[in-house]
Amino acid sequence: MDLRTLRAFVEVVRQGGFSQASKTIFATQSAVSKAVRQLEDELGAPLLDRIGHRPRLTALGELVYPRAVKLLAAREDLLADIAEMRGLKRGTLRLGLPLVASSSIFGPVVAGFRARYPGIEIRLTEHGGDELITMVRAGDIELAASLKPDAPDLEWQDVRREPLVAVLATDHPLAGASAVEIGALRETPFLLFGEGFSINRLVLAACRRHGFEPAVAARSSQVDFLLELARAGLGVAFLPRSLAEPARLSAGIAAPLLAEPDTEWRLTMIWRTGAFLSHAARAWLALLTQPPGEHSH
After folding, report:
1. Which of 16, 41, 88, 99 has the highest CB neighbour number within 10 Å of its CB?
2. Cα first-last separation, the chain
3. Is-above-0.85 flag for pTM?
4. In a domain, 79, yes or no
């Protein structure tokens, strides 16, 4: 069984189609299709149902896909082990960071890492938290920043913990409160991040504990845009306190604390349980434990 054909099959499933997969693995669409066909011929049955807009896994595909993901991840571990044993002076840090808070939290750390380890290339991937978790599990990246996982196949290290705040226009009836419960916002439209952002899960789970599904006025992956929508009175946005603080000091924004249990924004760095961590990854984790002012020393 050829790892090349397994890679093509996995990417077609992950990316939702042959065209998207071809861009990910830098091959033509016909080459990707041919590789998947080759794998299906070897196994003696189709792995994908190609009827419709998006290929879907057959029963055999459901069996093969998770094992193929593990095989590809094991290959990446093996290559990393070999590189470490050879004592390569140059290395690569395959790092995933969320679109929320990356610049303010990780910008100084990236700068400090580059100053200390100029020979190590940082291959940075930016996505929502859910996609980053998927990429870690697949072995596409070594480390990713995400909300604290509750999964035995992932290990984690704390980065930052903060409460969430409810960002409102100053003319909202609750704008003057120091803290609000999410149930009090039941009639206010919600301004949420895009699909796949972990903060959404915290907020929506809190709503369900109060017995309601919020009306969603808009979604965006851009913090500044959500703040402006809240300022304009379109609804309530939810952000870690440090991200909302600069906006709160300007006109038109209030940011009372979200007084709900289990909604703490707990940012962690995650990796696969038992996975080999390269020298670069271990150095990154060690740097994160240092006070912010020491990242560049």
Report:
1. 99
2. 48
3. no
4. no
The packing angle between helices 241-248 and 223-231, to 10°, is 50
Residue 47 lies in a domain: yes
Residues 209 and 278 in one domain: no
Encode the chain (297 residues) as per-residue pLDDT tens digits: 789 999 999 999 999 999 988 888 888 999 999 999 999 999 999 999 988 778 999 999 999 999 999 999 988 888 877 776 555 456 788 999 987 777 778 889 999 988 888 888 899 998 888 889 999 999 899 999 988 888 899 999 999 999 999 999 999 999 999 999 999 999 999 999 988 788 899 999 999 999 999 999 999 988 889 999 999 999 999 999 888 876 655 678 999 999 998 899 999 999 999 988 888 898 899 999 887 655 555
All residues at 6 or more sequence positions from 168 whose CB lies less than 8 Å from its CB, including other chains? 174, 175, 188, 230, 236, 253, 254, 255, 256
Beta-carbon contacts of residue 34 (< 8 Å; ≥ 6 apart)? none
> Residue 43 burial (CB < 10 Å; 0-12/13-18/19+)?
middle
* Domain assignment of residue 156, yes or no: yes
Residue showing tokens 């999964």: 151
CA 121/CA 280 separation, integer angstroms: 9
Assess contact for 119 and 91: CB atoms under 8 A: yes
44: domain CATH number is 1.10.10.10
For residue 175, give its domain range.
164-263
Domain assignment present for 82 = no
Strands (E), the chain: 48-49, 56-57, 91-98, 120-127, 143-147, 154-162, 164-169, 179-180, 190-192, 216-219, 236-240, 253-254, 257-258, 265-272
In degrees, rounded to 5, the angle at the alpha carbon of residue 23 between the alpha carbons of residues 46 and 126 is 115
Q: What is the DSSP letter of 163?
A: -
